[in-house]
Give the backbone structure.
Amino acid sequence: MTAEPSREQDAAAIAQAFVAARLSQAATPDYPGELPTTMSRSYEIQEAAITLFPDAIIGWKVGGVPPAQQPALGIHRLAGPIFARNQWTDNGATNTLPVIEGGFAAVEAEFIARIGIDADPAQLDWTVEDAMDQIDAVFIGIELAGSPLSAINDLGSAIVASDFGNNGGLLVGAELADWRERMDGVVVETVIDGVVVGTGGATSLAGGAMESVRFLLEHCARRGRPLTKGTLISTGAVTGVHRIYAGSDWSCDFQGVGRIKGVTVPATA
């Protein structure tokens, strides 16, 4: 009689499937295992995948959990790693971003905070004010949301967290000078294929963009991954999550700061 796979083996199998799909840039038609229903389970899978992925983490994306899911999951935000190979710098012209054909991709206008000092690994509880003191710069930028699984966002936040938080990369734009005074007043507009699809700003995020930094400092510390100097934090989609496909033309205008634009192309292994 064949023994049932252990919890750890199941998490490893799911992680292996997602990592293999990402490395080969191939879509995954279905979730490769039992759907996680708790965030603790999601992060078990995510940790297994981080171990398998052959690259260094240079930052983290933070995303919001829809209010309807928050009571069951017990959390208002989620996180996923951003890897070195998936960080780009705005070229000032038309940026090219790769998307997995048949998977999920979205463009998200975000403010990106950079950690300026190593966090105390023993500090597990943070205030927004303390979190802000850890930051040495804020940039405008784009999170390229991305997953081999097309339906990832439809399946809920626990599923999103299990596959690197549905992150496909981070495009870093201009630095926002005097960010403490200016950030909350910057109006952002996202356009896809000539159509305005969303407007907003840092205050569009529940608790604001700095709440994302506070959350991540606690989240990573409690996972034994305290944030270190230079870590980038993509703080959340300020105009919404806007799905794109290979060939989509997009731009995000951070009024008074800068405009980032680009086109998406099919990803290759």
Observations:
- The radius of gyration is 18 Å.
- Residues 85 and 201 are 28 Å apart (CA to CA).
- The first helix runs from residue 7 to 24.
- The chain has a mean pLDDT of 96.
